[in-house]
Design goal:
alpha/beta; Rossmann fold; 12 helices
Length: about 290
């Protein structure tokens, strides 16, 4: 079973075999079929603990087979943080809890910048996830943790087509649903832009530049009109052509320590603004000059 752990290693493993998943072929050293995972049988119907039936990567017959198993049996990957959520306990009265909901960019962030994820800041990123998967686990990994603030960053993997073809309208609906759920429970919302990228190494057929820009334009307007704080990581990290600026990413998608330092600075400002803002106040936009 893949739960929390070495985020960068998990992200590398995921993206190393994802092209094989998308193309329907086996990756080197990985099982091509879930048939080999017959050693482990999924629970059926109502179970005391559905996560107990989730196989390890080895039991499933390899990472490809394991990931296919999770898509069939745990689409939102609720088992990844189930135990960690239960063990988290209540937030300290003098330390507002802030949950970061996202994909591999968010998951790797904690490994590269562990000091940031302390003092009530909680990382709930899962490598490879689309916004539809994030929405499935939003109650467990955000609402039930009773944070004061949630930062939502998602869309990269939707644009890549990780869980199939989609539309920008579908991505926008998923993000809007998460915002509405959070606000209905009194949680302040920070909406982060999709970080820049001009290529996805695991899905070379996709040119993400235009979709990322279009989605970010929608996120900015939505945040302004729905009482959210908008974090503009994109403009702080992008070149004129829509790529990540040199030195800010090691693969064109995932930030380096320098990239995360920019994101941390912007998020710290956004958290302070969100905590100081009344629920119905106009939204704020947190940005940094390009090159800073």
């Amino acid at each position: 079973m893949v739960r929390t752990g070495d985020a960068r290693s998990l992200a590398w493993l995921y993206f190393a075999v994802l092209p094989a998943l998308l193309l329907g072929v086996a990756a080197p050293g990985c099982a091509a079929s879930v048939a080999h995972s017959s050693v482990h049988t999924a629970a059926v119907g109502i179970a005391q603990d559905s996560c107990k039936s989730e196989p390890t990567v080895k039991q499933a017959g390899g990472f490809v087979a394991w990931y296919r198993w999770t898509l069939d049996n745990d689409y939102g990957q609720l088992c990844v943080y189930q135990a960690a959520d239960a063990a988290l306990g209540s937030a300290k009265p003098d330390t507002p809890r802030v949950v970061f909901m996202g994909d591999s960019i968010t998951q790797i962030w904690e490994q590269d910048d562990p000091g940031f994820f302390s003092h009530g800041r909680v990382d709930r990123g899962i490598s490879g996830q689309t916004t539809s998967q994030m929405l499935v686990r939003f109650r467990q990994d955000v609402i039930d943790l009773h944070p004061a603030v949630v930062q939502i960053m998602g869309g990269t993997n939707d644009i890549a087509g990780n869980t199939g073809a989609t539309t920008l309208a579908d991505i926008e609906s998923n993000l809007a649903s998460m915002v509405e759920l959070a606000q209905a429970h009194g949680i302040k919302v920070i909406l982060a832009s999709v970080p820049p990228s001009n290529h996805f190494f695991w899905q070379p057929r996709v040119n993400p530049v235009a979709p990322i820009r279009e989605l970010n334009a929608w996120i900015r307007i939505y945040a302004k009109t729905h009482g959210c704080t908008y974090v503009d990581d994109y403009d702080a990290m992008a070149t004129r052509t829509g790529a990540m600026r040199p030195g800010l990413s090691y693969d064109g998608v995932h930030p380096t320590a320098k990239g995360f330092s920019i994101m941390e600075s912007l998020s710290r400002k956004a958290i302070a603004v969100a905590l100081a803002t009344r629920t119905n106040d106009p939204s704020s936009e947190i940005s940094a000059p390009i090159g800073k």
